[in-house]
Amino acid sequence: MGNDVSSNLPEDWATVDMLNRFTFCPRLFHLMYVEGRWEENQYTLEGKAIHRRVDRVDQLLPEALAPEPAPDVEPEGDAPPEIARSVSLADETLGFMGKLDLVSADPEGGEAIPVDTKRGRVPAVPLRSYPPERVQLMAQGLLLRAHGYRSDHGYLYFAGSRTRVRVDFDAELEQQTLEVIAAVREGRGNPVMPPPLEDSPKCWGCSLCGICLPDETHELRESNNAPEKPQAASTEGHDLGTDPRRLYPARDRATPFYVQEQGARIGKTGERLTVHKDGELIGETRLIDTSQVVIFGNVQISAQATHLLMDKGKPIVHFSTGAWFHGLSHGMGIENSYSRAAQYAAAADPQICSRFTIPLIHAKVANQRALILRNGSGEAKDRCVSALASHLKTLDPSAESIQRQSQTTTPSPDFLRGWEGQAAAHYFAAFSSMLKTGELPDFDFTTRNRRPPKDPVNALLSFTYALLVKESLVALWSEGLDPWWGLYHRPRHGRPALALDFMEPFRPILADSVVITAINTGMVRPKDFETNANGCAMKPAAKKALLRAWEQRLDQIYTHPEFNYRCSWRTILRIQARLLVRLLRGDIPTLPWPVVR
Predict the structure, then answer these.
(1) What's the CA gap between 471 and 529, in Å, rounded?
(2) Delimiting residues of CATH 1.20.120.920 domain(s) in the chain
(3) Which residues pair with 285 in a beta bridge?
(4) How many CB atoms lie under 10 A from the CB of residue 315?
């Protein structure tokens, strides 16, 4: 089947392609046609390539003629069938439509045979085809019948083996197809996501497996039924069953494209982005390798490049020269409102906000303690580790007292913010113990300050926090959430409150870790900063070095603390945003945040 006819489709209608997806996996159907989600992989791209000839020109189905009386003289031979490709048909009675790859029609005899093209080889199963393919072909037969033709069989053409497989349209297959049509028409208006398949081989090769997260969803549902398993798991694995399969790539192929050369201009040439200054090409990248474009300061971008990025769903992130985050330019994004409706409902419920916030800030403080344990030294480290350990016990989300309290009473946001602030005070009091300040006294750190930062360490922290806000905001926006409406941080004009919520557990293990690495390995030097009585500013060399350290950290492969498979930190951020949507929509009962050891 080629591209389905779905433009101007009535809300309660089905398409032939929807029937295939629903029969294959109801959750896949929901993600594609209710949530509007789609991602390409090698199999979908191969399928598109095979259908290019079919979809090149739309043709009309020949009109079926009423049978004429038998002639006195026998004809010399049967007339050859008429072949029509890429034929769009609809049936108002059943409420579905589709585009048929190829129809072999005999208008005089009143018979039409649909031929549907498939990417792979003939399956080694008894019927030489799978149910989704047979339902899809039977639906095409129903459309032909609705237009006056007799259609009692069709063919599946498997391009991989160049073989046709006959499918008879018997009563059982027809009844199954009618039931699927009814289920699809009902499912299009149902915002509740069907459960994922369980340990199914269908998930391998599915382009939406990284969005669906079938094994992760089952793992979290099982975890919630095991009271002794903590919400924040260690990297030692799971207590229940088999570890989830990693059904998506460990790393994203596409990465951010940073442009901070003042006076530069971004344009496009075909599917490439180019950067020019004073008429000279100073940089370029392929669009397929670019996840977002990040602009610092006085950098222009052409309307053509902007439109291309919006069409491809790739945001443009705007920073000032001094790395103040200005905002995003992006296209339409995910075109459904179910996730945002669930987000706003959750934000208005104090108990839901409390149950969301307690594990969030507990994970942040646990990661601060882990970072101090790894990198700190001396008495400052010992005091901080002891203080944070004691602090964590008072708000352990896995403790029965906290679980009972969060179900019967609601800790005030001011209390939670005060608890987090006290932990931060202990943490930053020992932050300098993680830095080689003896060798580099210019990087002495006494306290956290900002707006503007007063010293090099604070300048580096502010810059990496801005980068983390950017990554969090893009991840949330990509999942259809409103980054400006938080559940912990109070919404305020111009403040990406949900992005600030989302980034909290990642501050120590991503942003702070990058700063420590950049200083202790000499990636940044005191000469890379300008400091006076009004504050401290990073020179271009420091920004470039820190961006390099940041990208290296996000690309680092790590064992996922909850699911025990290996992937990059950038992938973990993306998966965490998708799990947040699942939590808000009621697909999973709890949301674990990554806690490292």
Answers:
(1) 25
(2) 338-585
(3) 273
(4) 23
Average pLDDT value for residue range 21-41: 90
Q: Grade residue 78 by pLDDT with cuts at 50, 70 and 90.
A: low
What is the rounded average pLDDT of the residues 68-82? 59
Task: Reply yes or no on whether the pLDDT at 45 is more than 90.
Answer: no
How far is it, in rounded angstroms, from Cα 73 to Cα 130? Answer: 45
Query: Is domain 255-329 given the CATH code 3.40.1440.60 in the classification?
Result: no
Residue 490's pLDDT band, with cuts at 50, 70 and 90, is confident
**pLDDT over threshold 70, residue 65:** no
**Segments of the chain assigned to CATH 3.100.10.20:** 255-329
Mean pLDDT lowest among 20-24, 28-32, 58-62, 149-153: 58-62
What CATH number does domain 14-62+80-187 carry, 3.50.50.60, 3.40.50.1110, 3.30.1330.10, 3.90.320.10? 3.90.320.10
Burial class (CB in 10 A: 0-12, 13-18, 19+), 381: middle
Strand partners, 273: 268, 285
Contact predicate 211/574, CB 8 Å: no
Whether the pLDDT of residue 33 is over 60: the answer is yes
Give the burial string for 337-364 (b: 16+ CB within 10 Å, else e): ebbbebbeebbeeeebbbbbbbbbbbbb
Q: What is the DSSP letter of 562?
A: T
CA distances from 117 to 3, 125, 251, 386, 388 (A): 12, 18, 33, 66, 62
What tens digit of pLDDT does each residue of 135-159 get?
A: 999 999 999 999 999 999 999 999 8
Higher pLDDT, 72 or 203: 203
Residues of the chain with CATH 3.90.320.10: 14-62+80-187
User: For 576-587, what is the mean pLDDT?
Assistant: 93
Smallest Cα–Cα separation from 347: which of 490, 183, 534?
Answer: 490
Count, residues in the chain: 597
Helix and strand counts by DSSP (H, E) for the chain: 19, 18
3-state secondary structure of 520: helix
Report the distance separating Cα 497 and Cα 434, nearest Å: 29
Just give the CATH number of 338-585: 1.20.120.920
